[in-house]
Amino acid sequence: MLSRIAERMYWMARYLERVESTARLVKVYANLLMDLPQEIDIGWYNLVVLNSGTENFAKRYKNRDERNVVKFMLADEHNPGSLGSALVMARENIRTSRDALPVETWEMINDLSIYARANMKRGVNRRHRQKFLDTMIGGVQQINGLLNGNMSHDAAWQFMRLGRNLERADMTTRSLDAAASVLMRAGADTSANLNEIVWGNMLSSLSAYHPYRRSMRTSIAGAPVARYLLEDTSFPRAVGFCMVHIHHACTHLPRAEPVVERLSDVGQRAFGGFDYADLSEPFRDYLNTMQLHLADLHGAIEANWFELRDA
């Protein structure tokens, strides 16, 4: 297929996943701040830091309060990582690739875009935020369900798998980073109950609570939760699962050897026997390194398939 179409499929899937994952991240952070004891003072600005948006945020806002952070994460058109920006780009990639997608995809992304524009201010406000985020998550899941059930699993589909799983792996590491950051900021106040609140919310935000309990058969604690969300190969939002499916997609695409080689290298370095004993700064460094490896993998995908010149 044409490299420009392949690139659109890849980025469409990444942007759709970014919409859903950003909604999940804001949702879990809101739930965490509601559930934490009042004496633990953890601000919203941490979300900006976790998403590498400090410089961009500083250009737009003076106050690091809840409203500004949520607006930056959801609605700010000048933030390329915001939910709104990702939705605009997902829609544009679908618009320019309609011949490769089920007809209903264009209708569904338009419906979701119209809802987002009409309700974005309500989503920023605390009162209606939960409903807005749930609707955005559900809308993306409907589109992905349509694509999964009605689209030929050809090359276009495989490029979508690459984009979706790479973006999902990256966002899962950021969700884990958010939980670790909250517990680090709690410091000496950290207790078994607080750990359960934080990691329980983390699992729920990724729809992983019941799969974790069935798979791990243990109580909710930092080490097993982190291991599960990074290494499990059965749960769709675990990084290990994403890496397996990226590899599987590559095996169905031509000239995939350079990407497969890079993927193998990333797997060896990213899952290098971290023992999860210390989920403070060493764990956050580990997650940051993993994000850099995923960025390298994106570079390999881009160089291998999208920088080709269509004949």
Task: Describe, in short, the structure shown.
The protein has 311 residues and is mainly α. The chain is built from 14 helices and no strands.
What report would you give on this structure?
The protein has one domain. With 311 residues, it is an all-alpha fold. The model has no long low-confidence stretch (mean pLDDT 90). It is 74% helix and 0% strand.
Features:
14 helices; 311 residues; mainly alpha
Give the N-terminus to C-terminus distance in angstroms. 11 Å
Unreliable parts: none
Tell me how many strands there are: 0
Order of helices and strands: HHHHHHHHHHHHHH
What structural class do the secondary elements suggest? mainly alpha
How would the blueprint of this fold be written?
Blueprint lengths: L2 H33 L9 H6 L3 H7 L5 H9 L8 H13 L7 H22 L1 H25 L4 H32 L5 H14 L3 H8 L5 H10 L7 H12 L6 H14 L10 H26 L5
Helix pairs in contact: 1-5, 1-7, 1-8, 1-9, 4-6, 5-6, 6-7, 8-9, 8-12, 8-14, 12-13, 13-14
